[in-house]
Every structure is written in C-alpha cells, then in structure tokens.
C-alpha cells in the first residue's frame, strides 16, 4: 500500500473514531436526560400522593405542578435537541465510514494493479527466456 493511501486511511479512521466517541457522548447525555424526565415524573407522582394525605400539601400542589410542567418541558426540549444532534452525528458517521471504505477500495485496487503489473513483467521475462532457449 502506498504512503498516501495509508495516510488517507489513517486520517479517515481517526475521523470515524472521533465521530463514534461523539455519538457515545450524545447517547450518554440522552440517557441522562431520559433519567431526569423519569425522576421528574416520579417526583410529581410522589407529590400527588402526599397531597392526597396532607391538606396543606394539596393546596400547594397546583403551584408545584406548574413548576413541574416547566421543568419537564425544558427536559423534553433538551431531549428533542439531543435527538437532532444524534441524527446529525449518525449521518456524519455514515459519511465518514463511506469515505473510509472509498479510500480502502482505492488502496486495494492500487495494490492489485501493482501486483498485476509485476505478474505481467514476470510473464514477459519468462516468455523472452523461452524464446531465447528455443532459438538456440
């Protein structure tokens, strides 16, 4: 494999690895956002149960739920943004893989062409040797 092909493949591999790390980081942030929504839901359910038992808590439940809705909307907005970011990262990773495969294909084709040229020269040399032997 030629030096330029190795360099291109190495650069492409680095880009793929970087995008894979980015995608993993996005997935971790997504899991955190989903956990935050689940915790908010559990807290709201806990407050509802508490409001059923305590009349004072029942009076404050509406204010709590109003704040809870705004916090949940923010968390769901973050999740929506992460979905879009994840889609973009997946598209970029797909493109990087395609580029890597193109470079690998070009390098392999160049290697095979080089082997074919060597084989042709070798065959020509053997043919020439055979003709010389026959002429003698």
TrEMBL record:
Subcellular location: Cell membrane
Primary location recorded for the protein, binned into one broad class: membrane
Membrane topology classification: Peripheral membrane protein
Signal peptide as annotated in the record: none
Coiled-coil region(s): 16-50
Gene3D superfamilies for this protein: 1.10.287.1700
Keywords: Bacterial flagellum biogenesis, Bacterial flagellum protein export, Cell membrane, Cell projection, Chemotaxis, Cilium, Coiled coil, Flagellum, Membrane, Protein transport, Transport
Family per similarity comment: Belongs to the FliJ family.
Name of the featured protein: Flagellar FliJ protein
Organism: Brevundimonas nasdae
Organism placement in taxonomy: Bacteria, Pseudomonadati, Pseudomonadota, Alphaproteobacteria, Caulobacterales
